Amino acid sequence: MTTHITTPATDAPAEQETVREAPAPALPAAPAAPAAPAAPAAPAAPAADAPATGPAAGPAPKTGSAPSPLGRAARGLGRRLRALAVRSAALVALLALWETAPRLGLVDATFLPPVSEVATAWWELLGNGQLGQHTRASLARSFGGFGIAVAVAVPLGLLIGWYRPVAALLGPLLEVFRNTAALALLPVFVLLLGIGETSKVSIVVYACVWPVLLNTISAVGNADPTLVRLARSMDLSTPRLFQKVILPSSVPAIFTGIRLAGAVSILVLVAAEMIGAKAGLGYLINASQYNFAIPQMYAGIITISAIGVAFNQLLVTIERRLSTWRVPA
Hints:
By secondary structure, this protein is mostly helical. It has helices spanning 2-21, 23-26, 35-38, 41-57, 59-64, 69-103, 115-127, 130-162, 164-178, 186-193, 197-221, 225-233, 238-273, 281-290, 294-322.
């Protein structure tokens, strides 16, 4: 009897469980299924990722197309050529005007021959050795006087600019002579020293001393007082103070005076060679004028200009070597 009762009791819960589980399949049929269309948004992510790989591969051609050393050198050469063209444009225009103006009758070709004739005359003077002879004579006098002036003016300028008693003693004398033109004293040098090499070198020395001396005095006087006080607080001796502070800060102004003196040395020498000289570019210009050899005269003038430009560039190069400590602007 008990057995008969237990059997249905065990079966009833099984049926109830099956009945309860029956509604479970009905749940998928509910509107929750539309959530599946939202799943296509997931494929959108891979679609977005796929183009992402495209740009990643995009920079690869840029790295592959990086300029080679040869390309960089070519571009650098192109920039230099463009800069050279810009700097020489005015000079080329002047030469073109010089060539065309006499040929078109704008000026008298007798007194201003075309630049081609001047170039021919210059080549002839170079070929027969006259140009080299006169150039060597002028350079020896000019560079000799210039070197003596720099060797004297730089130490004297440092001394006058640093020691006030020396400046007070020599100040009035400097004011008198610096306002006296060198060419005004040329007859005095000729009378006292003769018409030989001594007078010509001496007039160059006198003309070159003043730009170097005055710029050196100004450079020392305008040294940064903060740096000077700092150096003194470190108990630096006077020679070390000059070496570490005064000289480095004075180099730009001193070289400005030296470059001015370099130009003056050539200009004054040409004038000095026109009086009592038998060689030199000044003598060549003067003799060509008297002989009415106008192309040769202009050839001598062009040679002087070329020497002045080359000398100035040499001084600029030396200044840059001595001013490597300066921070470029």
